[in-house]
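WARN no homologs supplied; continuing
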Amino acid sequence: MKATIMSEDFLTEGGCNACAPVRSITYLVEFSEGREQTIENLDVESLVMLFALKAGWKQEMIMTDDFEDAIRFKKDQKKVILTEDYRSLTYSSESTTIKALKKIDDHAQLTEKTNEILQTLFGLEPVEFEFNV
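OK structure emitted
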């Protein structure tokens, strides 16, 4: 699958004279079949969630044994759990765990880590990313 990621920059005003304009970036992912989807951030978490849900995985919020919030992805009998801390994300299945930084600025590294998680844990084909940001 191929995905082109584009961005658009906006300055949003707070509505009063004392509020400074705030920069807001919107990301749009256009799939090879022509459909488009927006994502909030250009990061591993947003991209993995987008492609997992597109492939039919369902997500739900759960509480871990350590009383931390987590997201569980489910499809058929397969499960992948996403936990996060201040700087990193941890994706784990029954047999495999993959860690990723929350913010990866280099597009090549972002693509590599996203595809590693999608292929290894979700069983998806690699995504060919094109960036127009």
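The first strand starts at residue 2 and ends at 12.
OK
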